[in-house]
User: Fold this.
Amino acid sequence: EAQVTQNPRYLITVTGKKLTVTCSQNMNHEYMSWYRQDPGLGLRQIYYSMNVEVTDKGDVPEGYKVSRKEKRNFPLILESPSPNQTSLYFCASSSAESSYEQYFGPGTRLTVT
Amino acid sequence: DQQVKQNSPSLSVQEGRISILNCDYTNSMFDYFLWYKKYPAEGPTFLISISSIKDKNEDGRFTVFLNKSAKHLSLHIVPSQPGDSAVYFCAASRNFGNEKLTFGTGTRLTIIP
Assistant:
């Protein structure tokens, strides 16, 4: 089954404790992105990647890091989480041929206390 | 600065009637527009899209209209069904690419049986 998986689905952590949210897709897609969803703000892009070792900042990259060492994986790293990073995070992927049709993962709800 | 705006946070429509969801944008460089649908506890799913060279695109019960001079697009759902109850996000892109999608804040559509 074609899918984007994220882990963990739920995470509660404390300020400053480094964490990684994993994202994996099995569709051999070139493009991958991370978004955060906040009330009244919709979905905002954090980082995106057009292929292996190619990443670029989205609209709200501060406080986040990403890497794309393999085509299928695109982890999101929070080196020193802060409460304002409490949010619902989505990973998405799409192919270069049909780049507008993004497939989203189920989301990761992160709470930073 | 919200470049893509959905001014109605919620909308209720009787089953069988037409649902009209609206979206406005400010950036004249946007040339590709999309609608995504999101159910609770799931990631958004792609619904329909339109290029700036068109003013209408139809897919079954879903039609998207684009008015470039007004920087406005709308999604029409006819007839509305209970399964259409979801949050709908409008999104815009430049250069016909998905590498950077700008999303609106979403409209929660409720179909009343």
Q: What stands out?
A: The mean pLDDT of chain A is 94. Chain A touches chain B at residues 4, 31, 33, 35, 40-45, 48, 50, 56, 58-59, 90, 92, 94, 99-107 (CB under 8 Å). Chain A is about 0% helix and 50% strand. Residues 7 and 22 of chain A are 5 Å apart (CA to CA).
